[in-house]
Amino acid sequence: MSTSTAYIEGVGIWSERLPAWNTASRILRGEIAAPEEPAKRPSPDLLPANERRRAPDTVAIALAVGSEACAHAQRNPSTLPSVFASTHGDLAITDYMCDTLASTPGLISPTRFHNSVHNAAAGYWAIATGSTRPYTAISADRYSFGNGLLEALVQAQSDNETVLLVAYDIAAQGPLANVVKSTGRLGCALVLGCQPTSNTKHVMQWQLRESEEQGDSINSAKLARTENASLVAGNAMAPALPMLEAIARAPGNIVCAVGPKMGLELELAPMNEYSFRSVS
Amino acid sequence: MAESVADLHARRAPSPIARLCISAFTATSAVGRGNAATLTALRARASGLSRNDFGPQPVDTYIGRVEGIEDNPLPQHLKQWDCRNNRLAWLGLNQDGFMSTVDTARQRHGPTRVAIVLGTSTSSIGATEEAYRSLDNAGRFPQHLLNPLIHTPHSTGDFLRHALSLDGICVTVGTACSSSAKVFAQGERLIRSGLADAVVVGGADSLCGSVLFGFNSLELVSHEQCRPFDVARDGINLGEAAGFALIERALLEPNGTGPTLLGYGESSDAFHMSSPHPQGLGARSAIADALARAGLSADAVDYVNLHGTASRKNDEIEAQAISDIFSRNTLASSTKGWTGHTLGAAGILEAVITLLALEHSFAPGTLNTTRLEPDCPQLRIENTDASLQTGMSLSFAFGGSNCALLFGRNA
């Protein structure tokens, strides 16, 4: 398969110890220590005031990182098609739904029910930003980030678009936490373009490769290369961390797993003025 | 500067796509297993809806329940994935020779070159609900349900990868009731990008407490059999289904026959989590984009399988959009009076019904309905025998996600 090129215009990230890209990129480069005090949950300022406090964690985090990445890219969020990736969706709502169904099914909250759909964060994003562009919401177990990234790259390339990728997972709660392994809260977002612009931050060559010999190890082997990235290593979206590390430390190469036998090979380089002139 | 270009992008019509060949398709729902049973029920106007008898304290409504799931456990080598949703998916896979067509594609292209894009809304959550109903004294899942493979949205996608022995891209789309329509769009992009030679697209969604009690809490469920587009309609019936299609690059021979994917359109309402846009804005732009990708005008569409849930709002807004967009010669109907609303599987189920309509020159009407919503001359109660060259299927979802699919009869 041939190599394609995408252009990273913006990045967003939120977790308790990696609270925004400006700070997180320096932490991931090892320039500064992670803050001792965990950050408070971001306020979903895009939502109407009466909805902010009761917004599910997944929605608050997805909206925060999506906004940050769009601002970084100087893109109007309403103009971008988007891909939302989450391994498990809102695990707190899943716990609530199953717990209530087991005890008092007739008392299910209608709001929590419609917030239980896997595309809840995507739907709130579209409403809050006024975006009528298509969104999708995907899941692929431990390959959720890789498949979200791949779908965003495919949309950017095949439809000549600038695409927003948002990826997030939260901690498992209640009895489900014995079976589904996810701790902490992590969200990240990328604005990926198909053409270089004056806002391009990084150039990324990508290629989907069959990587049979590496099997499942391509996922874990690349995890938490720095101690700081291991701050959220227990989160189901932790497979996004090597990519974020690579962006913070570019130039560099990583493999992002999209399945047990498939990997996305990524080669990242900062987009300096010279390379902008040479490709445009 | 970047914004003005992006704004232009936002308004432009999508470019036409090369049509894709649909090498195989199948659906299993309350009206029966596989295409022949589905077609027979549609022709005979035999509804698959029955009184809700699902789970403890059943809600007073009708459901479209697939018979025999309880008696059909998964084969030994797939036992790890055993749950209602994956059993339903397995039942669906084993109809109409679908597995052998995938096998042929796997041998022709190689196991990493055949992708899986599966749509589901609630996936295997029924198993999680069951575990919460049967916690042990320490508040833990019972042993037989202590299995992470059946407590995650990708459960059925992962199951399919093993059941079909495929090693390519395998991903789940979870956009509620548009899920298994949007899989055609994602699959087309994978083929166009050269990342797959063939894609198994489809969906599976099974009945569970979450949706029965959830839709009931929103007061959207009818106590009777649903009556899509009837002036006196009073709500939806939930159902379950599994369906699949294999899409591949169309052969270049001019005399190729067989159904094709001509176009698709995706949009979002940006309006409300559980109510459609009052003017059907997103629905209209999804239809327009599907036509643009196919390079066809609305007049070319012979049949439209509508979302038509029988909710007050959906049907009113959808009927208005259909009457504004399509010619009076277009036939339109909702088949949810046969199957119920199968949520994340509705996209593929109704895509298959549309493909059957094209293949058999037969447009199903609308079951249980006696007085149609006025001012939409395209709506049909009765079945119609007519030569149909192109058919559209519409799916709309919570979170304002819309998808329109356009199919052709011959390559």
State the name of the first-level CATH class of chain B: Alpha Beta
Under the CATH scheme, the architecture of chain A is 3-Layer(aba) Sandwich
Q: Structural class of chain B, please?
A: alpha/beta
* Rg calc of chain B: 20 Å
Roughly what fraction of the amino acids of chain A lie in strands? 15-25%
**Greatest chain-chain contact:** A-B, 81 and 79 residues
Q: Give the C-alpha Rg of chain A.
A: 18 Å
Report the biggest beta sheet of chain B as strand number plus sense, adding barrel if it closes.
11 strands, mixed
- Residues in helix, % of chain B: 25-40%
How many domains of chain B? The number is: 1
The total tally of domains of chain A equals 1
| Helix and strand run of chain B | HEEHEEHHEHHEHEHEEEHEHEHHEEEE
Report the span from N to C terminus of chain B.
Answer: 43 Å
Strand content of chain B: 15-25%
Keywords, please?
heterodimer, A: 280 residues, alpha+beta, Peroxisomal Thiolase, Chain A, domain 1, 10 helices, B: 411 residues, alpha/beta, 11-stranded mixed β-sheet
Gist?
The complex is a heterodimer of chains A (280) and B (411). Chain A is of the alpha+beta class.
Describe this structure as you would to a colleague.
The complex is a heterodimer of chains A (280) and B (411). Chain A has helices at residues 21-28, 49-52, 57-73, 91-103, 110-114, 120-129, 144-158, 217-220, 241-249, 273-279, and strands at 4-15, 82-85, 135-139, 163-169, 186-193, 202-210, 252-259, 262-270. Chain A is globular. In chain A, helix 1 (21-28) packs across helix 9 (241-249) and helix 3 (57-73) packs across helix 6 (120-129). Chain A contains 10 helices and 8 strands. Chain A has an 8-stranded mixed sheet with strand order 3-2-4-5-1-6-8-7, with helices on both faces. Chain A has a single domain (4-279), classed as Peroxisomal Thiolase, Chain A, domain 1. Chain A has 280 residues and is of the alpha+beta class. Chain B is an alpha/beta fold. Chain B has a single domain, classed as Thiolase/Chalcone synthase (Peroxisomal Thiolase, Chain A, domain 1), CATH 3.40.47.10. Chain B is 32% helix and 20% strand. In chain B, the strands form 3 sheets. In chain B, strands 1, 2, 5, 6, 7, 9, 10, 11, 12, 15 and 16 form an 11-stranded mixed sheet that branches. In chain B, strands 3-4-8 form a 3-stranded mixed sheet, with no helix packed on it. In chain B, strands 13-14 form a two-stranded antiparallel ribbon. The longest helix of chain B has 15 residues, at 346-360. Chain B is globular, with a radius of gyration of 20 Å. Residues 1-9 of chain B have low confidence and may be disordered. At the A-B interface, helix 4, helix 5, helix 6, strand 3 and helix 7 of A face helix 1, helix 5, helix 6, strand 6 and helix 7 of B.
